[in-house]
C-alpha cells in the first residue's frame, strides 16, 4: 500500500516546511491542515537534514505553528530514526489518532541498513563509531575511495 507509481503525484502529497534538530529529536514540520485518522498521506522531506543530527535521533512531525510532536513510526510501531530518513524522498504514511494525540505510521518498513553500524567483516576492527549523520557521510565517502 505505498504511493501509486502510475500517478504523477499522490492525492494527498505533503511537502515539508522545515526540518530541524533540537533536544535530540529530528523534527519535520508539515503545513497546517487537518490530517484525518486512518487516511494515507505522502510526505516529502524537502529540506536538508541538519549535519548535527545524531543518527539514532527519533523522528517526529509537527503541524504548522503548533509545537505538538507526533511520532513517526515504522509499520512495526518502532520509532523511525534520523538515519532512515533521506531528503527529497517521498514517504507513505497513515495517520492514527487516539483520544489525546496521534502518530504518523509508515505504510512500509524503512530499510534499516543506513542505521546499522554493522562491521563489514570479522574480526571486528576497533574504530570510533560515528555519532552524527555528517560523520556517517564522511565515513561512506572514505570507504568508496573518496577524500575529505
What report would you give on this structure?
Helix content is 7%, strand content 28%. It is built from one helix and eight strands. The protein has an eight-stranded mixed beta sheet with strand order 1-4-7-8-6-5-3-2, with no helix packed on it. Strand 2 and strand 3 (25-30) form a beta hairpin. The longest helix is centred in the C-terminal third of the chain and has 11 residues, at 133-143. It is globular, with a radius of gyration of 17 Å. The mean pLDDT is 81.
Task: Identify the notable features of this structure and list them briefly.
148 residues, mainly beta, eight-stranded mixed β-sheet, 7% helix
What order do the strands of the largest sheet run in, or round the barrel if closed?
Answer: 1-4-7-8-6-5-3-2
Helicity range: under 10%
Low-pLDDT stretches are none
Quantity of strands, as a count: 8
- How much of the polypeptide forms β-strand, as a percent range? 25-35%
Distance between the termini: 40 Å
Give the mean pLDDT: 81
Structural class: mainly beta
The gross shape turns out to be: globular
Major sheet details: 8 strands, mixed
Output the number of helix runs. 1
User: What's the order of the H and E elements?
Assistant: EEEEEEEEH
Radius of gyration: 17 Å
Give a concise summary.
The termini are far apart. The chain has one helix at 133-143; strands spanning 13-15, 18-22, 25-30, 40-44, 59-63, 70-73, 90-97, 102-106. The chain is built from one helix and eight strands; from the N terminus they run E-E-E-E-E-E-E-E-H.
Amino acid at each position: 500500500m505505498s504511493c501509486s507509481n502510475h500517478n504523477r503525484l499522490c492525492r494527498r502529497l505533503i511537502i515539508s516546511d522545515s526540518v530541524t534538530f533540537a533536544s535530540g529529536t529530528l523534527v519535520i514540520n508539515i503545513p497546517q491542515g487537518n490530517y484525518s485518522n486512518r487516511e494515507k498521506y505522502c510526505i516529502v522531506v524537502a529540506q536538508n537534514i541538519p549535519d548535527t543530527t545524531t543518527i539514532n535521533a527519533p523522528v517526529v512531525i509537527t503541524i504548522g505553528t503548533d509545537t505538538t510532536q507526533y511520532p513517526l513510526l515504522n509499520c512495526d510501531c518502532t520509532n523511525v530514526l534520523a538515519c532512515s530518513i533521506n531528503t527529497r524522498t517521498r514517504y507513505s504514511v497513515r495517520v492514527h489518532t487516539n483520544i489525546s494525540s496521534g502518530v504518523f505510521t509508515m505504510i512500509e518498513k524503512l530499510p534499516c541498513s543506513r542505521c546499522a553500524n554493522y562491521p563489514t567483516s570479522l574480526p571486528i576492527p576497533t574504530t570510533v563509531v560515528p555519532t552524527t549523520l555528517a560523520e556517517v557521510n564522511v565515513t561512506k565517502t572514505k570507504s568508496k575511495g573518496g577524500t575529505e
